[in-house]
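Summary: Need help interpreting a holo structure output

Steps to reproduce:
1. Submit the protein chain below together with the SMILES for pyridoxal-5'-phosphate.
2. Request a joint structure prediction with the ligand placed.
3. Inspect the structure token block that comes back.

Expected: a single structure record containing both the chain and the bound molecule.
Actual: see attached output.

Input attached:
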Amino acid sequence: MKINKFKLEEFFAKYEFNVKYSLCSSDCETFSVKELLALDKKYRNDLLTLRLGYTESFGNPLLREEIAKLYEGHNKDDILVFSGAEEAIFIFMNVLLDTNESVIVQFPAYQSLFEIAHAIGVRTALWKMIEDVEWDIDLEKLKREISSNTKCIVINFPHNPTGFLPTKDQFKEIYKIAQENRLYVLSDEVYRFLEFQEEYRLQGMSEIYDKGISLGVMSKAFGLAGLRIGWIATKDKTLLKELASFKNYTTICNSALSELFAIIALRNKDFILERNLEIIKENLDLLDSFFNKYSSIFSWSKPKAGSIAFPKILIDRNIEDICIELIKQKNVLLMPATKYDYDDKHFRIGFGRKNMRKALEKFEEFVKENLI
Ligand SMILES: Cc1ncc(COP(=O)(O)O)c(C=O)c1O
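--- attached output ---
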């Protein structure tokens, strides 16, 4: 398989670990091993006695049980664990799609959601969000994108990079459109549980639709990206078996250590999510004030969920140049929309980290010195 470079991840690889402040990360503040083990004394012993052989390919049954509890009507047999959401997307696309088929992908998008299908030789139709209406979705447009060889609709809510979250009715309408046309729905829900009000939270697509595939991960809301633990939840047992079979050619099984830490985190999810949402809400207020103060330079739609947003620069400058200049001058990283193949005006900003206030102060210095 030949595949185009993953622009956003390459940009991160180049700068993320060399800058002082990442102001565009999508994962929430992480935890140390010590902090996780402090959540319950018994886990220290579990860690010390853990055996480090191969693990069950579907994932540790205890972990699958914890993951199943995140959804209504699922049990552990509906869950397959992967090395991050990334492996799940790669395997799902390879298992589901044939070259004569096509997929519809919400856009802008995290690149792997369309690029892997493209690399397989599948036609990808982009379902564009409406920038001028706070990144809303147009369901009539979605219907128009469906053709006789469409196999799957790929959606992502809460959305990377805009933070857009549809209403529950809109979400159900997507399911109905898919059901009428017997299409699969890959629902990338990796930012689920980061809704700023709990009543905004959508059901998992796998809860409501037999051809619905919910994609989840420990990286974002739980802040544990280094574990590389993601999963797919679906009631389609045949598909699940085929995905597991393909996994024998990628990672075979997951890291036993990571699975243990994911179990600990999920058993303490209320504490973890509460802490991360607190950080997010505080940061979001800071961002709101910042963008209001500089409304002649930036426009932005305040998101309803997630840990990232996609503001736009209004002055006549190229955003990638600005981002590079910002790294050089202030050691602060923002993600230009060019890395999303979107435009040269938007940029991704992240607000899940504790040091965002300081990073924003540095960005403000840059704005005053360069953009006013
Ligand atoms: C929408 C979306 N899906 C999938 C992923 C991949 O998640 P992970 O890196 O944890 O595998 C990301 C990561 O940024 C993402 O934003």
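--- end attachment ---

Reviewer comment: The mean pLDDT is 97. Residues 26, 84-86, 110, 156, 160, 188, 190, 217, 219, 225, 230 surround pyridoxal-5'-phosphate (CB under 6 Å).
Status: needs-info
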